[in-house]
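job 3f2a | input accepted
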Amino acid sequence: MKQLLLGAFLFLMPCLAALAQQRPQYTQYVQNNYLTNPAVGGIETYTDLRLGYRTQWTGLEGAPTSFYATLHGSLGYNGNHSPKETKASHGGFSKQNSFKRSVPHHGFGMLAMMDKAGLLRTSTLNLSYSYHQPISRYLTLSSGISSGVSQFTFNSQNAVVYDPGDPYLSGTVQNALKADLGLGVWLYSPDFFAGFSGGQLLRNSSDVENGGAAGQPHMRQQPHYYGTAGIRLQPSRDLSLVPSVMIKMTESATPAIDFNLRALFSQRVWAGASYRHNDAMALMAGVNLSPLLDMSYSYDLTTSNLNQVSAGSHEVVIGFKLQNSQKVICPTWVW
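job 3f2a | predicted structure (335 res):
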Protein backbone atom coordinates (compact mmCIF):
# COMPACT_ATOMS: atom_id res chain seq x y z
CA MET A 1 0.00 0.00 0.00
CA LYS A 2 2.83 2.39 0.79
CA GLN A 3 4.24 1.93 -2.72
CA LEU A 4 0.84 2.58 -4.26
CA LEU A 5 0.26 5.72 -2.19
CA LEU A 6 3.78 6.95 -2.92
CA GLY A 7 3.19 6.54 -6.64
CA ALA A 8 -0.14 8.35 -6.41
CA PHE A 9 1.34 11.25 -4.48
CA LEU A 10 4.29 11.55 -6.87
CA PHE A 11 1.81 11.81 -9.72
CA LEU A 12 -0.59 14.22 -8.02
CA MET A 13 1.92 16.57 -6.39
CA PRO A 14 3.08 18.22 -9.62
CA CYS A 15 -0.56 18.55 -10.66
CA LEU A 16 -1.42 20.39 -7.44
CA ALA A 17 1.73 22.48 -7.54
CA ALA A 18 1.08 23.54 -11.13
CA LEU A 19 -2.68 23.93 -11.02
CA ALA A 20 -3.28 24.69 -7.33
CA GLN A 21 -6.69 23.06 -7.63
CA GLN A 22 -8.61 19.81 -7.66
CA ARG A 23 -10.76 20.86 -10.59
CA PRO A 24 -9.67 20.24 -14.20
CA GLN A 25 -7.31 22.72 -15.80
CA TYR A 26 -8.59 24.49 -18.93
CA THR A 27 -6.78 26.96 -21.16
CA GLN A 28 -9.77 28.26 -23.10
CA TYR A 29 -11.73 29.55 -20.11
CA VAL A 30 -10.96 32.94 -21.71
CA GLN A 31 -13.74 32.07 -24.16
CA ASN A 32 -16.01 30.54 -21.53
CA ASN A 33 -15.67 32.14 -18.10
CA TYR A 34 -18.91 30.41 -17.14
CA LEU A 35 -16.67 27.42 -16.34
CA THR A 36 -15.49 29.18 -13.18
CA ASN A 37 -18.13 31.85 -12.51
CA PRO A 38 -21.92 31.26 -12.48
CA ALA A 39 -22.55 35.02 -12.72
CA VAL A 40 -21.60 34.85 -16.42
CA GLY A 41 -24.68 32.73 -17.16
CA GLY A 42 -27.11 34.54 -19.47
CA ILE A 43 -24.72 37.38 -20.30
CA GLU A 44 -25.46 37.21 -24.05
CA THR A 45 -28.77 37.56 -25.88
CA TYR A 46 -28.57 34.01 -27.23
CA THR A 47 -28.28 30.60 -25.56
CA ASP A 48 -24.64 29.55 -25.50
CA LEU A 49 -23.77 25.85 -25.80
CA ARG A 50 -20.11 24.81 -25.59
CA LEU A 51 -18.48 21.41 -25.80
CA GLY A 52 -14.85 21.10 -24.73
CA TYR A 53 -12.34 18.25 -24.69
CA ARG A 54 -8.85 18.38 -23.21
CA THR A 55 -6.08 15.82 -23.11
CA GLN A 56 -3.33 16.92 -20.75
CA TRP A 57 0.36 15.94 -20.66
CA THR A 58 0.16 13.75 -23.77
CA GLY A 59 2.41 10.71 -23.52
CA LEU A 60 2.26 10.42 -19.73
CA GLU A 61 0.51 7.26 -18.54
CA GLY A 62 -2.64 8.04 -16.55
CA ALA A 63 -2.56 11.72 -17.57
CA PRO A 64 -5.80 13.70 -17.11
CA THR A 65 -8.43 13.83 -19.83
CA SER A 66 -11.47 16.07 -19.46
CA PHE A 67 -14.76 16.69 -21.23
CA TYR A 68 -17.32 19.36 -20.46
CA ALA A 69 -20.61 20.72 -21.78
CA THR A 70 -21.91 24.13 -20.69
CA LEU A 71 -25.26 25.65 -21.57
CA HIS A 72 -26.41 29.07 -20.41
CA GLY A 73 -28.86 31.66 -21.59
CA SER A 74 -31.07 34.54 -20.52
CA LEU A 75 -34.73 34.85 -19.64
CA GLY A 76 -36.49 37.67 -21.49
CA TYR A 77 -33.31 39.26 -22.91
CA ASN A 78 -32.98 39.08 -26.70
CA GLY A 79 -31.44 42.47 -27.43
CA ASN A 80 -34.50 43.90 -29.17
CA HIS A 81 -35.18 46.42 -26.41
CA SER A 82 -31.58 47.29 -25.56
CA PRO A 83 -30.81 51.00 -26.10
CA LYS A 84 -28.14 51.53 -28.75
CA GLU A 85 -25.05 53.59 -27.92
CA THR A 86 -22.60 55.08 -30.43
CA LYS A 87 -19.07 56.34 -29.75
CA ALA A 88 -19.35 56.51 -25.98
CA SER A 89 -16.82 58.63 -24.08
CA HIS A 90 -15.05 55.57 -22.71
CA GLY A 91 -11.99 54.04 -24.37
CA GLY A 92 -11.67 50.90 -26.43
CA PHE A 93 -14.38 49.20 -28.42
CA SER A 94 -17.17 51.68 -27.73
CA LYS A 95 -15.21 54.52 -29.34
CA GLN A 96 -14.97 52.65 -32.62
CA ASN A 97 -18.32 50.90 -32.83
CA SER A 98 -21.88 51.08 -31.61
CA PHE A 99 -23.07 48.69 -28.93
CA LYS A 100 -26.33 47.81 -27.22
CA ARG A 101 -26.57 48.43 -23.52
CA SER A 102 -27.48 45.57 -21.24
CA VAL A 103 -30.89 45.56 -19.55
CA PRO A 104 -31.96 43.92 -16.26
CA HIS A 105 -32.49 40.23 -16.86
CA HIS A 106 -32.20 36.74 -15.36
CA GLY A 107 -29.82 34.01 -16.47
CA PHE A 108 -29.74 30.24 -16.15
CA GLY A 109 -27.08 27.67 -16.84
CA MET A 110 -25.88 24.09 -16.64
CA LEU A 111 -22.43 22.53 -16.42
CA ALA A 112 -21.70 18.83 -16.98
CA MET A 113 -18.10 17.72 -16.64
CA MET A 114 -16.16 14.46 -16.55
CA ASP A 115 -12.48 14.28 -15.66
CA LYS A 116 -10.27 11.20 -15.47
CA ALA A 117 -6.78 11.16 -13.97
CA GLY A 118 -5.12 7.84 -13.28
CA LEU A 119 -7.49 5.66 -11.27
CA LEU A 120 -9.75 8.56 -10.25
CA ARG A 121 -12.76 9.69 -12.28
CA THR A 122 -14.80 12.75 -11.33
CA SER A 123 -18.26 13.49 -12.74
CA THR A 124 -19.92 16.83 -12.01
CA LEU A 125 -23.36 18.28 -12.74
CA ASN A 126 -24.23 21.85 -11.69
CA LEU A 127 -27.20 24.15 -12.32
CA SER A 128 -26.98 27.92 -11.92
CA TYR A 129 -29.02 31.09 -11.66
CA SER A 130 -27.81 34.67 -12.20
CA TYR A 131 -29.19 38.19 -12.27
CA HIS A 132 -27.76 41.02 -14.39
CA GLN A 133 -28.39 44.59 -13.21
CA PRO A 134 -27.07 47.67 -15.09
CA ILE A 135 -25.61 50.16 -12.62
CA SER A 136 -24.96 52.84 -15.27
CA ARG A 137 -25.35 53.26 -19.02
CA TYR A 138 -21.89 51.70 -19.32
CA LEU A 139 -21.55 49.19 -16.47
CA THR A 140 -23.50 46.05 -15.57
CA LEU A 141 -23.08 43.95 -12.43
CA SER A 142 -24.24 40.36 -12.28
CA SER A 143 -24.28 37.86 -9.44
CA GLY A 144 -24.79 34.12 -9.66
CA ILE A 145 -25.15 30.94 -7.66
CA SER A 146 -24.61 27.34 -8.74
CA SER A 147 -25.37 24.08 -7.03
CA GLY A 148 -25.01 20.44 -7.90
CA VAL A 149 -23.19 17.22 -7.13
CA SER A 150 -19.82 15.65 -7.88
CA GLN A 151 -19.19 11.92 -7.89
CA PHE A 152 -15.67 10.63 -7.27
CA THR A 153 -14.94 7.08 -8.42
CA PHE A 154 -11.67 5.33 -7.56
CA ASN A 155 -11.19 2.16 -9.59
CA SER A 156 -8.65 0.05 -7.75
CA GLN A 157 -9.23 -2.81 -10.18
CA ASN A 158 -6.60 -1.30 -12.48
CA ALA A 159 -4.10 -0.59 -9.71
CA VAL A 160 -0.71 -2.24 -9.49
CA VAL A 161 -1.12 -3.94 -6.09
CA TYR A 162 1.89 -4.85 -3.95
CA ASP A 163 -0.18 -6.11 -1.01
CA PRO A 164 -3.29 -8.07 -2.15
CA GLY A 165 -4.62 -8.09 1.42
CA ASP A 166 -4.55 -4.31 1.79
CA PRO A 167 -7.93 -3.24 3.34
CA TYR A 168 -7.91 -0.02 1.30
CA LEU A 169 -8.17 -2.11 -1.85
CA SER A 170 -10.76 -4.57 -0.55
CA GLY A 171 -13.32 -3.41 -3.15
CA THR A 172 -12.86 -2.91 -6.85
CA VAL A 173 -14.58 0.49 -6.96
CA GLN A 174 -14.90 3.16 -4.27
CA ASN A 175 -17.38 6.01 -4.66
CA ALA A 176 -18.07 9.31 -2.97
CA LEU A 177 -20.93 11.69 -3.76
CA LYS A 178 -20.42 15.31 -2.69
CA ALA A 179 -22.71 18.34 -2.87
CA ASP A 180 -21.31 21.46 -4.51
CA LEU A 181 -22.03 25.17 -4.10
CA GLY A 182 -20.59 28.06 -6.10
CA LEU A 183 -21.01 31.85 -5.90
CA GLY A 184 -19.78 34.60 -8.18
CA VAL A 185 -19.98 38.25 -9.21
CA TRP A 186 -19.15 39.72 -12.63
CA LEU A 187 -18.71 43.41 -13.52
CA TYR A 188 -18.66 44.12 -17.24
CA SER A 189 -18.84 46.84 -19.88
CA PRO A 190 -18.10 47.09 -23.62
CA ASP A 191 -14.42 47.59 -22.75
CA PHE A 192 -13.49 45.58 -19.65
CA PHE A 193 -14.60 42.87 -17.26
CA ALA A 194 -13.72 41.76 -13.74
CA GLY A 195 -15.01 38.84 -11.74
CA PHE A 196 -14.57 36.90 -8.53
CA SER A 197 -16.02 33.51 -7.71
CA GLY A 198 -15.76 30.53 -5.41
CA GLY A 199 -16.51 26.88 -6.04
CA GLN A 200 -16.77 23.75 -3.88
CA LEU A 201 -17.76 25.97 -0.97
CA LEU A 202 -19.66 23.25 0.93
CA ARG A 203 -17.45 21.42 3.39
CA ASN A 204 -18.12 17.69 3.70
CA SER A 205 -15.62 15.49 5.50
CA SER A 206 -17.47 12.20 5.12
CA ASP A 207 -15.42 9.15 4.22
CA VAL A 208 -15.53 7.32 0.94
CA GLU A 209 -18.46 4.93 1.13
CA ASN A 210 -17.34 1.33 0.96
CA GLY A 211 -19.92 -0.90 2.54
CA GLY A 212 -19.80 1.08 5.76
CA ALA A 213 -16.21 0.04 6.42
CA ALA A 214 -14.30 2.27 8.78
CA GLY A 215 -10.89 3.72 8.14
CA GLN A 216 -11.39 4.45 4.47
CA PRO A 217 -9.50 7.42 2.96
CA HIS A 218 -11.15 10.83 2.97
CA MET A 219 -12.12 12.68 -0.21
CA ARG A 220 -12.61 16.23 0.99
CA GLN A 221 -13.39 18.95 -1.51
CA GLN A 222 -11.32 22.10 -1.12
CA PRO A 223 -12.87 25.52 -1.77
CA HIS A 224 -11.54 27.06 -4.98
CA TYR A 225 -11.40 30.81 -5.59
CA TYR A 226 -11.00 32.59 -8.92
CA GLY A 227 -10.26 36.25 -9.64
CA THR A 228 -10.04 37.53 -13.19
CA ALA A 229 -9.99 40.79 -15.12
CA GLY A 230 -9.44 41.89 -18.70
CA ILE A 231 -9.66 44.93 -20.95
CA ARG A 232 -10.41 45.35 -24.64
CA LEU A 233 -8.19 47.75 -26.58
CA GLN A 234 -9.14 48.90 -30.08
CA PRO A 235 -6.10 50.04 -32.15
CA SER A 236 -8.31 50.07 -35.26
CA ARG A 237 -11.87 49.28 -36.26
CA ASP A 238 -10.96 45.74 -37.37
CA LEU A 239 -8.52 44.82 -34.60
CA SER A 240 -9.13 44.28 -30.87
CA LEU A 241 -6.50 43.32 -28.30
CA VAL A 242 -7.62 41.66 -25.06
CA PRO A 243 -5.05 41.26 -22.26
CA SER A 244 -6.39 39.44 -19.19
CA VAL A 245 -5.26 37.75 -15.99
CA MET A 246 -6.63 34.90 -13.90
CA ILE A 247 -5.65 34.06 -10.30
CA LYS A 248 -6.66 30.65 -8.89
CA MET A 249 -6.44 29.93 -5.17
CA THR A 250 -6.98 27.01 -2.81
CA GLU A 251 -6.18 26.45 0.85
CA SER A 252 -3.36 23.96 0.34
CA ALA A 253 -1.32 25.51 -2.49
CA THR A 254 0.16 28.82 -3.51
CA PRO A 255 -1.97 30.90 -5.92
CA ALA A 256 -1.65 30.05 -9.61
CA ILE A 257 -1.54 32.96 -12.06
CA ASP A 258 -2.35 32.99 -15.78
CA PHE A 259 -1.50 35.85 -18.14
CA ASN A 260 -3.37 35.93 -21.45
CA LEU A 261 -3.28 38.07 -24.59
CA ARG A 262 -5.66 37.61 -27.51
CA ALA A 263 -6.13 39.48 -30.79
CA LEU A 264 -9.48 39.54 -32.60
CA PHE A 265 -9.54 40.35 -36.32
CA SER A 266 -12.72 41.70 -37.95
CA GLN A 267 -14.71 39.98 -35.19
CA ARG A 268 -14.23 36.71 -37.08
CA VAL A 269 -10.79 35.24 -36.36
CA TRP A 270 -8.79 35.38 -33.13
CA ALA A 271 -5.41 34.16 -31.92
CA GLY A 272 -3.64 34.41 -28.60
CA ALA A 273 -1.05 33.22 -26.13
CA SER A 274 -1.14 32.37 -22.44
CA TYR A 275 1.50 31.94 -19.76
CA ARG A 276 0.70 29.85 -16.69
CA HIS A 277 3.31 30.55 -14.01
CA ASN A 278 5.61 27.59 -13.31
CA ASP A 279 3.46 25.31 -15.47
CA ALA A 280 2.99 25.99 -19.18
CA MET A 281 2.84 28.35 -22.13
CA ALA A 282 -0.05 28.04 -24.57
CA LEU A 283 -0.97 29.09 -28.09
CA MET A 284 -4.64 29.29 -29.04
CA ALA A 285 -6.74 30.28 -32.03
CA GLY A 286 -10.36 30.27 -33.07
CA VAL A 287 -12.83 31.33 -35.73
CA ASN A 288 -16.44 32.55 -35.59
CA LEU A 289 -17.75 30.65 -38.60
CA SER A 290 -21.37 31.83 -38.56
CA PRO A 291 -24.13 33.10 -36.26
CA LEU A 292 -24.49 29.48 -35.17
CA LEU A 293 -21.01 27.95 -34.98
CA ASP A 294 -17.53 28.80 -33.70
CA MET A 295 -14.48 26.58 -33.10
CA SER A 296 -11.17 26.98 -31.27
CA TYR A 297 -8.01 25.02 -30.45
CA SER A 298 -5.15 25.46 -27.99
CA TYR A 299 -1.83 23.75 -27.41
CA ASP A 300 0.00 23.93 -24.07
CA LEU A 301 3.76 23.49 -23.95
CA THR A 302 4.72 22.29 -20.46
CA THR A 303 7.46 24.35 -18.78
CA SER A 304 7.63 22.41 -15.49
CA ASN A 305 9.67 19.23 -14.96
CA LEU A 306 6.85 17.27 -16.59
CA ASN A 307 8.11 18.45 -19.99
CA GLN A 308 10.63 15.60 -19.84
CA VAL A 309 7.84 13.02 -20.18
CA SER A 310 4.99 15.04 -21.70
CA ALA A 311 4.38 16.15 -25.27
CA GLY A 312 2.10 18.98 -24.15
CA SER A 313 -1.67 19.38 -23.83
CA HIS A 314 -4.38 19.76 -26.46
CA GLU A 315 -7.81 21.36 -26.05
CA VAL A 316 -10.65 21.70 -28.57
CA VAL A 317 -13.86 23.69 -28.05
CA ILE A 318 -16.93 23.86 -30.29
CA GLY A 319 -19.55 26.53 -29.59
CA PHE A 320 -23.16 26.89 -30.74
CA LYS A 321 -25.20 30.11 -30.51
CA LEU A 322 -28.75 28.86 -30.15
CA GLN A 323 -31.87 31.04 -30.41
CA ASN A 324 -29.66 33.72 -31.95
CA SER A 325 -32.38 35.99 -33.32
CA GLN A 326 -29.96 38.94 -33.61
CA LYS A 327 -27.60 36.88 -35.82
CA VAL A 328 -24.67 37.70 -33.54
CA ILE A 329 -21.38 36.36 -34.93
CA CYS A 330 -18.89 37.73 -32.38
CA PRO A 331 -20.14 37.70 -28.75
CA THR A 332 -21.05 41.14 -27.45
CA TRP A 333 -19.79 40.70 -23.88
CA VAL A 334 -17.63 37.55 -23.86
CA TRP A 335 -14.76 38.48 -26.11
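job 3f2a | The chain is about 5% helix and 50% strand.
job 3f2a | closed
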